[in-house]
Amino acid sequence: MTDLPIDPQLPILDEIEIDTSSNKRTARTATRLIMRELKNCYEPSNEERSAICVAFARKGKPVYGKAFDLFQMTAQHPRSAAGIELAIQHGELRLLEVKSTGRARIDEEFSGYFFSLSTAELLVAQALGDLYQFAFYNTTTKTLRMHPLNEIYKKAKGVYPTWSIRF
Fold first, then answer.
1. Residues 103-121: tens digit of each pLDDT
2. Of 16, 78, 88, 154, which is most buried, counting CB atoms within 10 Å of its CB?
3. Where are the domains of the chain?
């Protein structure tokens, strides 16, 4: 077998700027719009995020702090550690992981929508069942669809496992 020639490195041009913030902007917009649309839906503070993780751990359900974007609980419970604990004890707190797009061609059922799912999200979704939902939001059409993991698997036309590695 002959060795293939190695191409010389291509020069990097300073004038070219790559906008990597558009996905973050879409996700941030979707998060804000979901909070407006759903009653008692909040973006957790660091203290609330910790209280949620601790309260679920006390019930034997692992929750990774970065595996959810929002939480929703009944209005009768205050947004304190004690209130969060009570809401979880009574099954009145739900975690939401936001998946967003701005593509106008995506229909109201998100057919053809391709998204990633982290291992942490998968494990928390399996542990919490219906208390963990994926909130799909289209910032262009203002469409919101929420599904627990089992519904996502029913709708899925393909699952492509991957590993993302960061140095």
1. 888 888 888 787 888 999 9
2. 88
3. 22-155
